[in-house]
Inverse folding.
C-alpha cells in the first residue's frame, strides 16, 4: 500500500515545476514538524534564525555515524526516514526552517510547539503547529478542549501566528496534526482580519474540532472556506468536538489509534493525493463521536473537568507519565486499570454516563496500543469495563 513515504521515494527528485505542490507535500512538511530539531543542533546552528535543513541533516549524520538512533514518541523511525528522503533528493533539498518554538510547561499544563518551513525556489511558506507529544500532561490538555473555550496553547498559538503573519509576506499555508490542527484553525480564527487575508489555506489532519461558540464567530466564518479537514476512517482524536467544513475521509493501512499516524495513511500515486476511503467512518469512530457529544451535551464544564482530572491525574500519580510507559507487563496494566476504576468514587447523578464513556474510551485506546498484545486474562480490567453497553 502506498503512503507518503512511497510517494517521496518516487518523487524526491521531481521538481515542483514538473509536479506541482499537492496535499501529500503539505502533509509531509507537516509531519516532520514533529521532529525535535533542538536534538539536531550544534553550535553551528541557531534556531532563532533561518536554517537550511540539508545542512542540519548533513551535520547530524556526521555526528550520528556508527551510532544507533534512539527513537522515541516524536523521533520515530518513519519520521527519520521521511526526513532523510526529503533531503536526499532535489524536490526538498532547499527546504528551510525558521521561527522554531518549543514551549512545554507542566506548571501551566501547556504543550506548545510551532515553526515555519520555507521553499525559497517557489516562495512557499508553511506554518506548522505541532500536535501532542507522548506526555500525559499533553493529552490532558487535549481533553480540556471539551470543557474550556481556550486552553493555554490556544493563546500561545494566536500570539505566534500574529507575529509570524506580520513578519512574512503572504500567502501562507497553516497546518497541524492532532491538537496542532485545532491550534491552526483556532489561531487563524482569532488573528486580525487583515492578517487572515495572508492565509491561503488551513489544514486539519485528524484534529479535534472547535467549541460551538468559536464556529459561530465572525473570525471563523471569514476563514471557513479555507479550512481543509482530513481524517482516517477510524478517527479517534478527530471526532472530538465539531467542525462544519467538509471532511475528507482517508484510507489507512492500520486500525484504531494506529490510524492517527499519518505515515499509515494511504496515498493515491496516480492523482498525487491522499486516497479517499471507499466507506465512511468505522463503528468505533462513530461510537466515539457519539460519546464525545454526550460528554459535551449532557455534562457541565465542571463535570467534564472532574472526569478528566480524575482520569489523567490518577494515571499520572500511578506512575504512568507518558504513553511509552504502557509497557507489556501485568504491573503496568494493573496500574492503568486501577486508575480507570477510580471512576467508581465519583459522586454524581451522571455516574452511569461517566462509566460507559470511560469504558468506550478505555477500550478504544488501550485496545489498539501495546496493551492489546496481552492475553485477556492477564489484563485485570475493572468489572464495569467488561459490561456491555446495554448494562
Amino acid at each position: 500500500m502506498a503512503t507518503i513515504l512511497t510517494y517521496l521515494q518516487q518523487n524526491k527528485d521531481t521538481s515542483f515545476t514538473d509536479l506541482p505542490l499537492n496535499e501529500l507535500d503539505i502533509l509531509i512538511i507537516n509531519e516532520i514538524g514533529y521532529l525535535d530539531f533542538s536534538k539536531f543542533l550544534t553550535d553551528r546552528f541557531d534556531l532563532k534564525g533561518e536554517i537550511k535543513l540539508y545542512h542540519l541533516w548533513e551535520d547530524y549524520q556526521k555526528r550520528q555515524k556508527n551510532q544507533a538512533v534512539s527513537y522515541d514518541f516524536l523521533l520515530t523511525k518513519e519520521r527519520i526516514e521521511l526526513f532523510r528522503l526529503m533531503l536526499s533528493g532535489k524536490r526538498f533539498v532547499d527546504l528551510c526552517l525558521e521561527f522554531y518554538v518549543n514551549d512545554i510547561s507542566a506548571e501551566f499544563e501547556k504543550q506548545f510547539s510551532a515553526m515555519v518551513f520555507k521553499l525559497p525556489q517557489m516562495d512557499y511558506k508553511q506554518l506548522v503547529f505541532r500536535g501532542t507529544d507522548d506526555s500525559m500532561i499533553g493529552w490532558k490538555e487535549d481533553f480540556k478542549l471539551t470543557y474550556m473555550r481556550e486552553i493555554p496553547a490556544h493563546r500561545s498559538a494566536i500570539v505566534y501566528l500574529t507575529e509570524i503573519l506580520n513578519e512574512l509576506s503572504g500567502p501562507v499555508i497553516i497546518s497541524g496534526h492532532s491538537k496542532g490542527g485545532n491550534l491552526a484553525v483556532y489561531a487563524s480564527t482569532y488573528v486580525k482580519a487583515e492578517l487572515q487575508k495572508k492565509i491561503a489555506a488551513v489544514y486539519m489532519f485528524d484534529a479535534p474540532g472547535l467549541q460551538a461558540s468559536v464556529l459561530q464567530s465572525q473570525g471563523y466564518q471569514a476563514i471557513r472556506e479555507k479550512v481543509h479537514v482530513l481524517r482516517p476512517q477510524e478517527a479517534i482524536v478527530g471526532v472530538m468536538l465539531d467542525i462544519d467544513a467538509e471532511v475528507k475521509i482517508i484510507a489507512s493501512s492500520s486500525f484504531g489509534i494506529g490510524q492517527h499516524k499519518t505515515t499509515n495513511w494511504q496515498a493515491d500515486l496516480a492523482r498525487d493525493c491522499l486516497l479517499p476511503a471507499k466507506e465512511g467512518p468505522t463503528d468505533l469512530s462513530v461510537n466515539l463521536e457519539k460519546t464525545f457529544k454526550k460528554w459535551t451535551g449532557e455534562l457541565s464544564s465542571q463535570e467534564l473537568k472532574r472526569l478528566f482530572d480524575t482520569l489523567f491525574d490518577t494515571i499520572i500519580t500511578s506512575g504512568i507519565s507518558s504513553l511509552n510507559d504502557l509497557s507489556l507487563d501485568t504491573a503496568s496494566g494493573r496500574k492503568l486499570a486501577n486508575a480507570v476504576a477510580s471512576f467508581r468514587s465519583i459522586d454524581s447523578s451522571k455516574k452511569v454516563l461517566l462509566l460507559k464513556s470511560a469504558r468506550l474510551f478505555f477500550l478504544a485506546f488501550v485496545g489498539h496500543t501495546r496493551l492489546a498484545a496481552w492475553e485477556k486474562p492477564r489484563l485485570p480490567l475493572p468489572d464495569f469495563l467488561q459490561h456491555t453497553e446495554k448494562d
